[in-house]
Amino acid sequence: MGQTFFAHYEKLVADQVLKPDPAQADIVRHFDQLASGLRSHQDNKPNLIQRLLGRDHAADAPKGLYIWGDVGRGKTMLMDLFFNHIDIKKKRRVHFHEFMAEVHEAITAYRKSDDGKDRGGRDPIPHVTGPIIDSTKLLCFDEFHVNDITDAMLLSRLFEQLFAAGIVVVATSNVPPDGLYKDGLNRQLVLPFIALLKQQTHVLRLDVDHDYRREKLEEQPIYFFGHDEEARAGLDRVWRNLTGGQAGEPEEINLLGRRFEVPQQAMGVMRIGFKQLCEAPLGARDYLRLSHHYHTFIIDEIPYLDRARSDAAKRFILLIDTLYDRGCKLAASFAAPLNELSGDDKTAFEFQRTLSRLMEMRSLEYLGAPLNDVEETDENSGEA
């Protein structure tokens, strides 16, 4: 048997990757228990006699975890550490909004198919949940929230089938289950789902005094000017501070059917060059999807945006708009001071908004604000 998750966490603390925190350690103990339960459930397959007697193996799946608390307390970080540690092949980590968007897309596709063309006479939910059940045993949701009436109408039927199939859910949220869809239209529609969620997960509050993310960003400059060794060293310090000195690993992200490689990422932080992010054919929906995977963007070598870089400048404007609307944090190196960065009259008007947002994004108020939900719309679907 390999190292337990709690032992893994203790080593990260000993190595000063993480700061010791009793509240986080308590959550880790619950993750450790879940890991043990998942291993036992995976190893203890029902034998022939048990199957003949109708024993439901899915009913023996362990309860999941629903972890809630204020922003910057380490909820997502702990869930991601657990997700990377647990040795289960059929696992998925996804932003909750992205997951629900996929569900709606699957329902729409089903209703357009030959099987679904009987004017809604057939329930699309079994068709939608089937592939999820086949491919997933552990489903980890980041930023679990409900603010859409169409989601509220689906949740009970959707998750009844997922839980019945033995899928274990881990979720992070800024609100407890009873706070989901609070004051929403026809909130009674979501109440059965809330009851089901509380039945199928252990609800835990991560009650930490410190906003670690904000503290780490406040400790040092996050904008650097000039593409020299000093600027690179400054961003190296930001990276080490946010990730505890981890080297980071590359990761491939699915952007609307295309594979996009992030060269370096760890603990919700991505580091990437301007050229890869803004000179590639990416659009607002691509940037939005990336913002659902990472809470902090470190961007190297943002150049002087003259007329020769008009297309890249437009994408940069889209990127900053997306990060600002989502509340993502930014550290970057720039070729010139912010008010001298743009020399393109084609984007001069739009860049004034970008300039204002870049200045606000390094303020203490912005650094301490939570992430926001942003809906994907058709207007955001085009390439810049």
From TrEMBL:
One annotated GO molecular function: ATP binding
Superkingdom of the organism of origin: Bacteria
UniProt keyword Acyltransferase present: no
Keywords assigned by UniProt, alphabetized: ATP-binding, Nucleotide-binding
Secretion signal, residue range per the UniProt entry: none
GO CC annotation: cytoplasm
InterPro entries to which the protein is assigned, alphabetical: ATPase_AFG1-like (IPR005654), P-loop_NTPase (IPR027417)
UniProt-listed PANTHER family: AFG1-LIKE ATPASE (PTHR12169:SF6), ATPASE N2B (PTHR12169)
NCBIfam families: ZapE
Protein name: Lactation elevated protein
